[in-house]
Amino acid sequence: MIPVLSRDDCLQAFRKMLLIRRFEEACIAAAHKGQVPGHFHVYIGQEATGVGVMAVLDKGDFVHSTHRNHGHLLARGADPKKAFAEILGKATGYAGGKAGTLHGCAPDLNFPLSSGIVAGILPISTGTAYAFKHRQQPNVSAVFFGEGAMEEGAAYEALNLAALWKLPVLFICENNTAEVERTPGQAGYHAPNLSIFELTDLAKSMNIATTIVDGSDLGAVWNAAKTARARAVSGGGATFMEVRTETWPGGQWPTLVTGRTDIRHAWTREVPEKYAHLAAWFERNDPVLSVAREMLAVGIVSERDLSTIDAAVQDEIDQAVKFANESPFPDSQTALTHVWPQ
Ligand SMILES: Cc1ncc(C[n+]2csc(CCOP(=O)(O)OP(=O)(O)O)c2C)c(N)n1
Prior knowledge:
Strand 3, helix 6 and strand 4 form a beta-alpha-beta unit. The mean pLDDT is 93. This protein is of the alpha/beta class.
């Protein structure tokens, strides 16, 4: 699907996807050193979704996310230094260290908040869309959430009102369990409290346009998001996009492995012994390597170009980590600031 995009678009998107990958690998490394307070969730394996959707959004559009927000922030253009500092709880982070990993935000980029409450963000994003409609503003509200959100009542209320009032919302449901056999009510199904087989059936029942997209295919995500945004700003209402990816095998909490992505896997396909258990995923399901392979195949880049981009991205992440490590923790005097309207 890469041919639908220009060379510049491809390169920019690939760089962002790699930035997210390296950021998350650094995050896992920091967590292994005990530097990340509490629980956190990485975006490895879903990079094409955030980057593909964000590529078609306008500056004036709003973005909302969940507990798995790091990739969405970087895809929207967040500063990796401030984003990493926030995750470590430092004063230089986007929210002065108070949001941490679970409530990532970048207000300057119209990314006001993420909610750690599963499905909690859907009504908020629908409210944003209502404001756009009320003000006759030609913008959309994009909201990312996992398939688990479809088990929650808040999701149904948000979908219903978005449909009823034809609100400009892009509901991006990131189903990161595409490989799991769909057996409603069974433990193997990641959303075991759902009685449906297809997540899109829920949105269809509320007359919302739906689409199912392969999350390892950057071009497919990009196209679907573009269509959805055009529908929303032309008064056609919301779209429910189910983006399917296969679970990253290194992501089992609490034993997250770095699964360090060697960009050379894109052309050598030789996965080091240490990561042998991840080999099949790197080969079939890794969106970053998939885009790299496609770009190589159509001649947009050479192996050398990819290594150069990777080195520059790694350097940017190293600087972000250094910045975050050297930043102070917030002063106790700030504990009660920004927690209530003043
Ligand atoms: C209302 C609520 N219930 C339970 C939790 C605990 N919890 C945190 S993440 C998570 C799984 C969410 O799965 P999904 O929405 O599919 O997102 P994924 O982690 O797969 O990206 C749960 C149940 C929560 N945060 N909020």
